[in-house]
Amino acid sequence: MTVQILRKKFTVGQYHQMIESGILTDRDHVELIQGEIIEMSPVGRRHAACVDRLNELLVLKLFRKALIRVQSPILLSDNSEPQPDISILQRREDFYNAGHPTPADIFVLVEVSDSTIDFDRNVKVPIYAQEQIPEIWLVDLNDTQIERYCQPMNKTYQQLQIFNLGERLNFQAFPEISIEVNQVFG
C-alpha cells in the first residue's frame, strides 16, 4: 500500500500574513521556495565574512550604478520569495520601499554556500533560471571557487563558468567592472 503525502503550499500573500500575524517572526530564519517554507541554515563565520567582504567589494565597485542588498527578500513569483545572500539591483529612488524587487529589477544574484551547496545549486539556481534572472554567482566556500550562471532558458542556464583563485570575473550588466576571485575569499 502506497501512502500519498500531501503538502500544503503557500502563496506569498499567505506567507506575509503569517509574518504580520506573528506566526513567523524575525527569529524564524526562513524563506518561501515554490510554496514551501524552508528553514535556512544558520550562518557560520566563514559564510558571514564572505558575504560582508562581497558586500563591501560590490558597493565600492558598483557605487551609483546598482543597489546592493544583503540577505533581503526578492519576489520571484506568487509562491517564491527567497532571500539571496547578495542582490545586485537596478537603482530605484524609493529603495524598493513600495515592494520587493522582482526579476525585472535584478542584474545579479549571489548565493554564498557551504553546507547548502546542493540545495542552492539544484533547487535555487533552476528557480532563478525559470524566472529569467540573467546572472547568478554561486560562491562555493568548500571548493574555493565561483560558479557563474548566465543565459537562462526554461529551468536551466545555458552558460556555466567556473572561476578559481587567481582569476577575475566580471558582470554581464557591467562588463567594464571585474572582481578578483581572491578578493571574494579573502
Automatic annotation (TrEMBL):
Residues 14-181 form the Putative restriction endonuclease domain. GO terms for molecular function: endonuclease activity. Coiled coil: none annotated. Pfam families: Uma2. CDD domains: DUF820-like (cd06260). Keywords: Endonuclease, Hydrolase, Nuclease. PANTHER family: SLR1083 PROTEIN. This is Uma2 family endonuclease. It comes from Leptothoe spongobia TAU-MAC 1115.
